Amino acid sequence: MTQGQAPAVEGLFSEDGGTARLLGSRCGTCGTGYFPKSGLCHNPACDRSDMSDAAFGPAGTLWSYSVQNYPPPPPARYDEPYEPYALGVVDLDDGLRVVGRMDVAGPESLVAGARIEIVIGPIAHDEDGTELVSWKFRPAEEGRDA
Ligand SMILES: [Zn+2]
Fold first, then answer.
1. Which residues, other chains included, contact 14 with Cβ-Cβ below 8 Å and sequence gap of 6+?
2. What does the pLDDT look like over 8-62, one tens digit per residue?
């Protein structure tokens, strides 16, 4: 993030040296991952919650996608006038399936099975002009059109 930017929601992601990750939890007993963080393991087959912080990403595979054609309900943020955007469902390599905005001009280029990387980018602006950033997914370098 740069000056004039702020997370849309605190504590959900990190960016270090250009590598973006989602901040969640993992249960040490059964290995189940959670995003966002969870204080308890919700796996019904797990005997004992043993939660610790975990970071997920930065890469995965696009499982499916859709287009958000109408404004999403709060707490989702967007700028007026509302512009439809693609939403991706990504299977992160470390085991979580996560929904996020796709950082693409249009959904025409998206293909299920494509390699994806997490990026941190703007999703809306605050009343004072602060750029609100969040995680997004974009086709990974190796799979992107030249
Ligand atoms: Zn567990």
1. 20, 21, 23, 55
2. 999 999 999 989 999 999 999 999 999 999 999 999 999 999 999 999 999 999 9
Q: How far is the CA of 111 from the centre of ligand 1 (A)?
A: 33
- Over residues 115-145, the pLDDT tens digits come to 999 999 999 999 999 999 999 999 997 645 5
Ligand 1 centroid distance, CA of 137 (Å)? 28
DSSP letter assigned to residue 14: E
Question: Ligand 1: distance of its center to the CA of 29 in Å?
Answer: 5
Report CA(45)–ligand 1 centroid distance (Å).
8
Q: What is the pTM of this model?
A: 0.90
Q: How far is the CA of 41 from the centre of ligand 1 (A)?
A: 5
The ranges assigned to domains in the chain are 5-143
Q: How far is the CA of 52 from the centre of ligand 1 (A)?
A: 11
